[in-house]
């Protein structure tokens, strides 16, 4: 029986949420999942339907979520569904909801210099999400996040200090995984716009991360 994936997109359109979901929905289908795509957070309150999903991918920058929607999402994950996403669609969603941020394991706070060149360093080449991948270059936003020290970090980036001298040499997580109850959480800070996923390593990390996060 195929696993089921929910892909939720919306919020700030500058992150091209639909275009990004259009990239990954076929890839996750190719991985053997039945994929539903939704744009209304109200589905998070439908406990019966949410219980049918093995992984939820969210691309929903900023915006707001009701207490009922947040409760439904967090309970679904705690009961074993995975949660996966990238960039602001996951780590800059629902800025007023600290319990949601606790689940994600981090929150965006800045991208010094805006669109710049930087390097992503793979830290664990034995993990299934990053296995066989080498360090790679990006030309995009380099995310500075407030992060949970309990995250299992798989890739990092180092700030040069050119655009904010006081963070020169700061090593920042780019890819991590963690747990929320029985659910697995995957996050990648890459993916400001759909074109970022023209970088093969960025696209492959996210594809693998969504598959990894699915319910066992």
Task: Please characterize this protein's 3D structure.
The strands form 2 sheets. Strands 2-1-3-4-11-10-9-6-7 form a 9-stranded mixed β-sheet, with helices on both faces. Strands 5-8 form a two-stranded antiparallel ribbon. It is built from 6 helices and 11 strands. It has helices at residues 17-30, 47-50, 67-78, 87-91, 98-104, 200-213, and strands at residues 3-11, 33-38, 55-61, 82-86, 106-110, 115-122, 136-141, 144-147, 152-158, 171-180, 183-188. The protein has one domain: Rossmann fold (3-Layer(aba) Sandwich), CATH 3.40.50.
Low-pLDDT sequence parts: none
Q: What average pLDDT do the residues reach?
A: 98
How are strands sequenced across the largest beta sheet?
Answer: 2-1-3-4-11-10-9-6-7
Q: N- to C-terminal separation?
A: 13 Å
The CATH class, by name, is: Alpha Beta
CATH superfamily: Class I glutamine amidotransferase (GATase) domain
């Amino acid at each position: 029986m195929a696993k089921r994936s929910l892909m939720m997109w919306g919020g700030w359109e500058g992150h091209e949420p639909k275009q990004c979901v259009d990239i990954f929905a076929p890839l996750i289908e190719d991985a053997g999942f039945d994929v539903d795509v939704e744009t209304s957070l109200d589905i998070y309150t439908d406990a019966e339907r949410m219980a049918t999903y093995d992984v939820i991918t969210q691309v929903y920058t900023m915006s707001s979520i009701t207490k009922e929607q947040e409760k439904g999402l967090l309970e679904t994950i705690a009961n074993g569904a995975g949660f996966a996403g990238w960039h602001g669609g996951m780590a800059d969603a629902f800025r007023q909801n600290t319990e949601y941020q606790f689940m994600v394991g981090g929150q965006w706070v800045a991208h010094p210099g805006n669109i710049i060149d930087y390097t992503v360093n793979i830290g664990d080449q034995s993990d299934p999400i990053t296995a066989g991948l080498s360090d790679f270059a990006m030309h995009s936003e380099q995310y500075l996040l407030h992060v949970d020290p309990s995250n299992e970090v798989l890739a990092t980036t180092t700030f040069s200090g050119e655009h904010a001298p006081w963070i020169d040499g700061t090593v920042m997580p780019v890819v991590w995984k963690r747990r929320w109850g029985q659910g697995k959480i995957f996050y990648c800070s890459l993916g400001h716009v759909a074109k970022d996923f023209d970088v093969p390593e960025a696209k492959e990390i996210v594809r693998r991360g969504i598959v990894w996060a699915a319910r066992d």
